[in-house]
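A reminder from the course coordinator: this example appears on the midterm review sheet, so study it carefully.

Given structure:
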């Protein structure tokens, strides 16, 4: 009963669309393409989980945004995602380029609503520290120390 939405546009889009057609997955996999900034929160708020299987990532802002929408997050053990997603607490971490690990974690969340809700709640609690007012105060304090 799960549905996967792939949001974004890039060099792999046509290949992904062809693969979805070839595997006859068009009823459960939607390639939505690029969306305007204002559309993203609406899409996220209608989901239950967010997956960021990046091979490299700076800060992991998309994970923060997903947490702010109350989504359970699955991310890879790379870059800034490691600063945001605490495995088993604010989300689940998978090894980069490990499709078996990724599939296992997705299936685990799909089959365990209690775990998904707990991770969602912990992520939402965590992301509150990234409120711009709080971040501004911390930055000001840091600048004063310098």
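Designed residues:
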């Amino acid at each position: 009963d799960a549905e996967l939405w792939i949001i974004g546009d890039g060099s792999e889009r046509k290949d992904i669309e062809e693969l979805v057609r070839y595997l006859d997955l068009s009823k459960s996999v939607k390639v939505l393409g690029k969306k305007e900034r204002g559309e993203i929160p609406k899409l996220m708020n209608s989901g239950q989980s967010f997956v960021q299987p990046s091979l490299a990532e700076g800060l992991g802002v998309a994970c923060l945004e997903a947490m702010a929408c109350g989504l359970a997050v699955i991310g890879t053990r790379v870059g800034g995602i490691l600063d945001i997603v605490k495995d088993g607490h604010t989300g689940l971490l998978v090894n980069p380029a490990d499709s078996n690990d990724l599939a296992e974690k997705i299936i685990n969340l799909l089959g365990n609503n209690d775990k998904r809700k707990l991770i969602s709640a912990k992520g939402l609690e965590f992301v509150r520290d990234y409120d711009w007012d709080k971040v501004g105060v911390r930055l000001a304090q840091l600048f004063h120390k310098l």
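The first strand starts at residue 4 and ends at 7. The radius of gyration is 17 Å.
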